[in-house]
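In the lab's daily routine, each protein ends up as an entry in a very long ledger. A line of letters takes care of the sequence, but it says nothing directly about the fold. The fold becomes a row of whole numbers, each drawn from a learned catalogue of backbone shapes. The protein below has been through that process, and both of its lines are reproduced in full:
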Amino acid sequence: MTTTTPPRIRVDERVMGAGTTVRFVLLMVLLLVSCWNVMGGITRRAALRTGFDHYGCLFAAGGDPFAGSVTRDTVAMTLQRSAYQACLDRYEPPLAWWVTLSWPVLLVVVAWALFRGVPAWRTRRGRVVPLAAVDPDGTILRLVEELAAVAGLSRVPRVVVDPAAASTGAVVLGSDRRPTVCLHGGLLARRHTDPEGFRAVLLHELAHIRNRDVTLTYVTLAVWWAFVAVVLVPAVVVLVRSAVSIAPQFQDVQVPSVVRSFGLLGFLVVLVYLARADVLRSREIYADLAAVRWGADRGGWAVTTPDPPSTGWRRAAGALAELWRTHPRWDLRRRSLDDPVVLFGVRALPLFLTGAAATVITSQARQEAHAANAGWAGHAWVLASAALVVGVLGVSLWRGVAHAVLTSRRVPSGVRAGLWLGAGMAVGELVVDDVTSFTWLPPRPWVLALVVLAGGAFAWWATQCAHLWIRAWPGRTIRPPMLLGLAAMCLVLSAWFEWWQRTGTLYAAGGPFDTGGFLQSSGLESIAEPYRSLPAKVLLETQGVAGQPLVLPAVATLWVVPLLAWAIGPATAPPGWMRDATGGGAVETDGEGVPPLRRVLLAVLLGGVAACAALAGAMAFLHARRAPEGLTILDVVAYCGWILVALGTGAAVAAVAASASAGRYRLLVALVAGEAAVAAGCAATFVLASFDGCVPPLGTLARTCDWRPEVPWPLYQLLLGPALLLGAVVAVVAAAAVSAVGAVRRRPASRGAVAPRRAPRRPVRPVHRVVAVGLLCAVAVGATVAAGVFRAGNGQGLDDRARGHEPAITEGRADAAAGLAGPPVSARTREIQVLAWHMYGGEELIKRFMTGAKGFSGLLAAGRGEVSESRVRPFCEDFGRVARDAGAFFRVPEPRAAELWKEFVAQVEKTGRTCGQAVEQSNGRLLERSMSELVGAARLGDAVLARTKAVAEEGDIR
């Protein structure tokens, strides 16, 4: 018996956009934003009048950036908000927006000059000669004109010859509008011995022009060398100067920051070079395929090269060296002519570099937007970063899934690609200052694992959406569903970036998970006791996340986008775009464009029942614990928490049931089932809660039976947003767990086992399917809009009920509040804090008082008991102003000095008040008393200075 292997289907590489242009744009944006951030930071530090960098006001307020304690710094800044802002306005004012923005403008100007000048320099007379000089009969020119027409070029490019170049290749210079093809001398010699090879080289270079590679390539080079000249060299000089000037006693705290600055620059160099090389390698293969399509002889790629090492360290070294090359290996280029699978693969390196670049762009742009007080710019950069990442990852995933479907290969899950993207984002966080500052690692490095997992889940969802739409779309072109999928990815990723920049980085940097407990313990706000319970903590945190503008729309997108594909139904024949992509080749369709909706709806029903059962159990539990004296706020808060748990339980049950019964698209069906179960659970449990009291063992908020929808209605208004968010998270976890169990169960199966044939599905009428999908989409959109309206109508919801009280810790207990925020401050840091306090206004206030005291004493001594009231009054008013300014200034960041400072401020205020009374009453005895009080205030001022000097000596920094 003879077995024949079916011919392998070759997929046209032009079936979808290549995505390489977006990767070039990503590199350009990375270099521009890095120039803006790096040189803007250097400019701001140069403009400061003190040597505390931009941490001077924070040190003066009692903060400790060396320890990396976000909580301590937050307490220090917030308890003294007015003084901190006044300090920033005076000593660390933001530069004008055009100052820092001038650096990217300079970079663009230098890059433009290089872009125009370098090709002109390389094609100058003396280095190259016109083609006519070596082609007197015009044979080569006619061939170029013929091939330019074959390539579809509107005009023939300029051709020159480099006679000194011995290689048998060519290169395109200039731009897409004015390209210049430079033929090497060795290529002209090859024309006589290998005319087909000569023709292949020309077609390859013309393909670069047709594919519009020239401008992108040389713009990238120009911007890179401009970055080296404008940013890299000056920044290295400044960093080296800063590194060698670090005092020995500061090395252990400042070395990590300096090393990270060097690391950021080195990381940018490696990232840009590797990403550029990877894109150029892909562009070469695209040009090869275009040249062959236009009639180039494949023999032109028959270049003899040594075989790559097959094993050992040499193979690893060869693979590493390959990453730095701008041209792919000849054996890979030859294989790609038959099967360009390399152009459809989802490779790790580009995704890792994309994730790292996105983190660097988002972080640096947010820092500059914050420095310029332009919050809108930070949001705009988040959207731009998400769009760039989606342009790379999304296109790559869609191309990989389409190639797998068209060639009947196994569709990748996308999880590995997402993990590489997340790993790049996590590594990027380690080279920027979002989660670290003066430490080697963030206080909670394990939080960065959440970034990696989020990348995996995001790519998993995007891949399954692409697979679902590719299987279901019947159109002539795949572009509409692809654009829809990319837009959805952009929204979801933007929501993640927003949350991570606002909250995730705070957690990684050591910020509190329990916001309410932190506010209460630090004295920033007073949180009522019932809202400090565990259910209230969970509700507060989930409400904070769900209240961000993009979160709930992103959650709705997670299940609306796949639902829309359900309305189309399974494909019964290959659509037109598949036939075009394979050149008319046969494409198998298995009729499983979408999973059966009936199973998902049954899972939703099961989830709604589970939510009701869970809430009934919780009501019975709360009924047994209810105090005899009546209902308390704590009982209501606990009831809210149990409602959220019940809805999460329903989502979990529905997601597990739906994903377990799905052969494909486990994550998508889990999301649809989980979110729909939340909506169904809200409706069912709301009815149950409205009849509270009708079943005595379940009575929680009421003791008598009646229909009371007005009782639970405010609670569900608060819980709808957090419940939708919780449902999405639970669905992802459930789908991952079911997939992991399924993978383990499949592993021991026999390799020779034949998969059982699935029973044919009972056909579903299109009208029924469209109606069901329409209802589910209406539920998704309606629930999202309702949650937003409820939150807008209720303000901050539970936050408003928990907050709004007077601060729990007064100014007199500020030291205790600061002590709750972190470990004890070292003597060295304390000395820096005291020095900053002196330099940023403390010493000036004392000198103002001492100058006034000296003048006042001299005035009284010169008057010999008779002094004009008009001459005394300005001193009294000045003492009052000094007391007010000192009271509004930072407390001294040292306990004993802070006590002396408080006494000093009170004594100065008393002196000014007594002096003013003496003037108003013309009372000499009061004037004498004010003089004695003045002496006491001067002694206290000297005591403050003496104590701060002693602190400086204890810190051993002199």
